[in-house]
Amino acid sequence: MKKILLVPFVLLLIFGTVQSRNQKKKLKPSFFGELKAREIGPAVMSGRISAIDASHNNPLLVYVGSAGGGVWKTKNGGTTFKPVFDEHVQSIGAIAIDQKHNDTVWVGTGEAWTRNSVSVGKGVFKTTNGGEDWSFMGLKGTDNIADIVINPDNSNEVFVAALGNIWKSNSERGVFKTSDGGRTWKKVLFVDENTGCSDLAIDPSNPNILFAGMWDFRRKPYTFRSGGPGSGLYKSTDGGETWEKITGGLPQGELGRIAVAISPVNTNIVYALIEAKESALYRSLDKGRTWEKRSASGIVGERPFYFSAIVPDPLDTNRFYKPGFTLYVSDDGGYSYTSPFVEGGRVHSDIHAVWVNPNNNRHLYIGTDGGFYISHDQGSTWQHAQNLPVAQFYHISVDNEEPYNVYGGLQDNGSWIGKSQGINGITNCDWENVGYGDGFTVLPDPADKNILYWLYQGGQLMRFYKDTREIKEIKPFSDDPDVKLRFNWDTPVYFSPTQEGVLYIGAQFLYRTDNRGDSWEKISPDLTTNDPEKQKQEESGGLTIDNSTAENHCTIYTISESPKDKNVIWVGTDDGNLQITVDGGKTWNNVIKNIPGLPANTWCAKVAAGNFKRETAYVVFDGHRNGDKSVYVYKTTDLGKTWKSLASENIEGYARTILEDSVNPELLFLGTEFGLYISIDGGEQWVRFKNKVPKVAIYEMVLQPQTSDLVLGTHGRGVLIIDDISPLRLLNEKVLNSKVHIFPVKPYYISNPKFSYGISGDQEFFGSNPSAAVTINYYMKKRHIFGDMRIEIYNERGKLIKTLPAGKRKGINRVSWYVRKKPPKVKASSPNLAFRTAFGPTFPPGKYTVKIIEGKNEYSAPVEIKYPKTERHSIADMELQYKILNKAYVLLEDISFKDKQIINLLRKIKNIKVLSNENSGEFMGELEKIHKTLVSTSPYIISGQIRLAEKVADVYSGIINYLGRPTKSQIERLELLEKEFKRISKETDKLIEKKLPEINRLLQKQGLKTIELLTREQYDKS
Amino acid sequence: MKTVKFIAILLVFFSAQMFAQSVDEILQKHFEAIGQKKLLEKGQFVAKGKVIRGQMEIPYTSYHKKPMKFKSVAVFQGMEIVQAFDGKNGWTINPFAGSNKPEPMTEEQNEKMKIQADFGGLFHNYKEKGYKVNLLGKETMDDADVYVIQLIRPNGDDIKVYMDAENYVILKTKFKTKVRGVEQEFETYLSNYKSVDGIVDPFDIETKLKGNTVSHIVIDSIDYNVDLPDSIFVMPEQKPEKDKK
Q1: C-alpha B217: how far from its chain's center?
Q2: Cα–Cα distance between B83 and A718 in angstroms, integer?
Q3: Mean pLDDT, consecutive 10-residue segments, chain A of 1022 residues?
Q4: Is the four-CA dihedral B67, B73, B74, B80 of positive or negative sign?
Q5: Do A28 and B211 touch (CB under 8 A)?
Q6: CB A20: neighbour CB atoms within 10 A?
Q7: For position B134, what pLDDT does the model report?
Q8: Nearby residues of A922 by Cβ (< 8 Å), 6 or more positions away
Q9: Which of A125, A738, B37, B168 has a CA between 20 and 30 Å from the CA of residue A324?
């Protein structure tokens, strides 16, 4: 019998183990709890704005669409903005406000300015409540949307100009129409699989008339073609149901990108900007029947893929705006062009979007590569909205300063250094420009704080001296006159993690320097496929040749040296090679063939050598430029012989970059085009991190070693920092199954409060600082609802010194303990004293204990409070500050007690009817007099009434903000005031001792209860 | 044609199934869970605790009386900040605004006080109060089910209540209101529910604006056995200042 019993028991054991192994907890976003990103900008140079629309009735209501940072709404014409599209794809192609119902707004995703770095959209979205909620309305496969037009007479009828996939043929492109508010769509104009719609215009006087510019184009990783047989200008007169190609008066032969616009003043007038062998501006005065070439100037032909737009003036039929490298305006129907800038014009180049107030044509908004601008004088002068943090970083790095700095380069906005924390937050002043052009990698020299390296497009590497702002060009040159170096648009530059001062740069060869770029050693052969067909950049651009290095190909794109072995170097190329050397560059091995499931020639976006083993590496491939949006993430543990895919279906991609934690090899971070993903089990499960990280493209991530901050370089939302990710390192199965799990608490260094004025208005960008408190991190399996839950802090002697409310959510909770005592207990009658005594002194350095009390359970962890590491103050000075400050603290409380004792006594005497002026009046008068010497009795804020308490508070508040030695004057002053108080106190006691018994005797005689003096114990309890 | 009708009926049936519990049924369970009946029987209480704003911790006492009387007294460094509502009018004393004298509240502040002072809670007799209440559906909050109930006040205040579907207590509210004409949304998290005399109340109330905590109220005690005179809720009369000559 026993045996039988035993068998099931054993089975249960075995089964139990198997089951528990299989029951691995599914990672969920809720686990991250309070862990969230903070935004540090930059906003000073903002980023590329791709679309703008504003309300006709209320021109201060504006929706601004950015190339990679989502949609921003302002209700006050740009003073403040709110991001309203964070949970959706951040690349915006078109925005249309329903002018009949301003709460309805349509957004077409996927930018239409088809540069090499353009992102990908996911269809059309609509809000009906002013941007609070968005519904997906379909057309997912359109990828990039150039325009959305709403029938002004029928809000349910909407047209979408879909460019389609930029990188490959697809049929979801052309003009789409809905007649039921987006529920169903009909493709009403389709030319072929390579031709999309680049612009739409609807006739406001007869919405059945529409014009569509159709564009035949294709981008490849190594070339761009604008123009083909599919391009043409089309017109519909039946509400888009049928279309006719317009040929009369327009150029023959292959056409390129076409923009079209109808004058709202006289709808017979139609403008068309047509890219052709000779690009020109055409005008029709008869609704598109006949056309006249008005200009073929260079201005109208500027970079059509980037600037093709015409914006007619709402009041003047002859005036229209033409975006380009700068903003142009024509006042004669397109015959001649000038700049609208007269008294101003300090506007970023590359204009993409223009909006003119239909009721006041002096009021304009424009969107540029450097943000959003406002003009109130018809374009003469401009105001920059320096509050849109939509910067597009290619790369970022950090240094080891305290607080650390962030470095990075931006699309068309050069290279920058920013602070990870400012005085009381991060403002535009905390970002400093260090380089021009398009910015990419920026690296601080680990050995010299005065030097950093930055580059502009195509490998133009610079050494920069911060003090003098001198720049030395240090790029390598080819040692063979017949061999041209090929540098990627975004050339990789990389510091060796093991050899101080060793810097790598990749062309088709890998170069290394150990003398800050004064000379370079070529340490590889051509590591690319060197395919001559992919090196014809001089022919790139199609009808308008455009060779800016953006299409440079067959180049090295990513470099990584093993932190465990300087001879192991990995190189990934844009044409799909993955190369490794294990002998410091003597021999190289292309291991791309060992990677399973990876299509040939897929761009290697990131290779990262493992932090823990020389044999380990991670690699990410990005195939979107080949029209392949799959996620490719792999890991090797044998120097590239075999690879395991870490991709999972829930990752929305394509992927761009990967980072292995520096402490826990199971903790991985993956940056994709649509946000951040985290794995705590080595890549088996991934979960999107949503907390204040929008669905933005993550181009690079770094971990700051001292703070364990995860710093994200996004291509559209600047830099985002997730402060102290160390709890994630410990988030294992056991922790996830704990009711409450407290993580180790980092030591806290006492710091002084910081002062700064906040008077720059509400327009300036403001990013928050990391918490200046002790941060208590703990994980909870489930939200706490019933019963008590709190946090208690104990000092070394086991005394409870502070109680804090606890966070109670599921996942990681973060609670701040500002390491301060309660403020001194004072009785203020004016706010002056209240403010000066509002904060208590910092608790002294020492070992403390944090306890989380959850019902009957307790979870505790030690925390150490320390003096800051500073050369300015000795420990003895800081100890003296603590001593003197606390002396003032005690004195303030003593004065307050004495004053309260007097007031209390006065009140009691007044309340006893038998006591008359005769027997107690003099005594009361004396008490009143003392009361008035102790504390100000004026209720006015600026009374100037300084009494003893105010005098002490003056010293107290003077000492509290400075961690070092108080002044001799402060110390002496305090001694004097202490003496003064002792004198008054003694006199008061004497007076009371003399008079109170007399009164009490009187009361006793009458059989009444005697008056008791308020004791200190009673006071402290009150 | 018949099939179409049939499908339509099925749809109705299913959608009704989805919200098998009507909002009133849910509210009934909520009232039972929090001891609403006992609360109304008691008719008044005093709560003591503290308001935490950043590094500041301000002792706080609030007085509540049926049907619509409320007063709170916060003490900052010995100075008292009073907010009160006598059932009709709100008033305040705020020495930090430059005066120790009671000042009447604005109409907008009065409207907020009506919510604060509502002894039985917003859902109590909501129809009589002219509030519209809708069940918006079920959502998950921290991976647990919650009912989302929307309450709209006649002035347009929109309050979404996230009610624990297991225990029928409120875990969160989203309060959308206009502050001097500008729409703002406050999120309040309620926790540390405790029962005192059979009445269940949250002892921890954290309010956030744009994701940042703006106030955190921790209640230390609630006393239902009190006798609060009406007079404490009424604005003390101010003698007009004599003209200085």
Answers
A1: 13
A2: 43
A3: 43 41 72 96 97 98 98 97 97 98 98 97 97 97 98 98 97 98 98 98 98 98 98 98 94 96 98 97 97 96 97 97 98 97 96 98 98 98 97 98 97 97 94 97 96 97 98 97 97 96 97 98 98 96 95 98 98 98 98 98 98 98 98 98 97 97 97 98 96 98 98 98 97 93 96 84 93 96 95 97 95 95 86 87 97 96 95 95 97 96 93 81 92 86 85 96 96 98 96 93 90 94 84
A4: positive
A5: no
A6: 11
A7: 95
A8: none
A9: A125
The mean pLDDT of chain B is: 88
Q: For residue A525, how many other CB atoms are within 10 A of its CB? A: 14
Asked if B77's CB is within 8 angstroms of A834's CB, the reply is: yes
**Beta carbons within 10 angstroms of residue A381's beta carbon:** 18
Between the alpha carbon of residue A154 and those of residues A206, A239, A314, the distances in Å are 12, 11, 21
Tell me how many degrees the CA angle A876-A881-A884 measures, rounded to the nearest 5.
120
CA distance A295 to A273: 10
Torsion of CA B32, B36, B41, B43, to 10 degrees: 170
- Fold match between A442-647 and A748-866? no
Q: Rounded distance, CA A256 to CA A300, Å?
A: 13
- Mean pLDDT value of segment B17-36: 85
Does A838 contact B77 at a Cβ distance shorter than 8 Å?
A: yes
Average pLDDT (B197-222) is 94
Q: What is the pLDDT of residue B96?
A: 82
Residue in chain B closest to A831 (alpha carbons) equals: B96
Q: Which residues contact A277 (CB under 8 A, 6 or more apart)?
A: A251, A253, A254, A543
pLDDT at B3 over 60: no
Nearest to A455 by CA among A408, A405, A509, A519: A408
Determine the pLDDT at residue A920. 83
Residues in A closer than 8 angstroms to B48, CB to CB, are none
In chain B, residues with a C-beta closer than 8 Å to the C-beta of A826 are 77-78
In this structure, the strands spanning A541-542 and A556-562 are unpaired
Is B96 close to A831, i.e. CB distance below 8 A? Answer: yes
In this prediction the pTM is: 0.94
Stretch B17-39: mean pLDDT, rounded?
A: 87
Q: Does domain B22-233 bear CATH number 2.50.20.10?
A: yes
Closest approach of chain B CAs to the CA of A903, in angstroms? 13
Domain A442-647 has CATH 2.40.70.10: no
CA distances to A230, A740, A840, A886 from B76, in Å: 74, 34, 13, 20
Across the interface, whether the CB atoms of A786 and B193 are under 8 A apart is answered: yes
Query: A698, A583, A574, A553: which is closest to A119 by C-alpha?
Result: A698
- The pLDDT score that the predictor gives to residue B239 is 60
Instruction: Sort out which chain A residues have CB atoms less than 8 A from B34's CB and list them.
Output: none
DSSP state of A530: -
Class of domain A51-384: mainly beta
What's domain A748-866's architecture?
A: Sandwich (2.60)
d(CA A520, CA A503): 9
Sign of CA dihedral A905, A906, A908, A914: positive
Segment B78-90 shows an average pLDDT of 93
Specify the long-range contacts of residues B138-143, CB closer than 8 Å, at least 24 apart: B138/B165, B141/A783, B141/B171, B141/B172, B142/A30, B142/A782, B142/A783, B142/A809, B142/A810, B142/A811, B143/A28, B143/A30, B143/A810
Residue ranges covered by each domain of chain A: 51-384, 442-647, 748-866, 875-1021
Mean per-residue pLDDT, B212-240: 90
Contact (CB<8Å) A834/B79: yes
d(CA B185, CA B177): 6
The reported pLDDT for the residue numbered A934 is: 94
A221 is written with which tokens?
């990783």
CA A419 – CA A429 distance, rounded (Å): 10
Window 199-238 of B, Cβ < 8 Å to A? 203-204, 206, 211, 216, 218
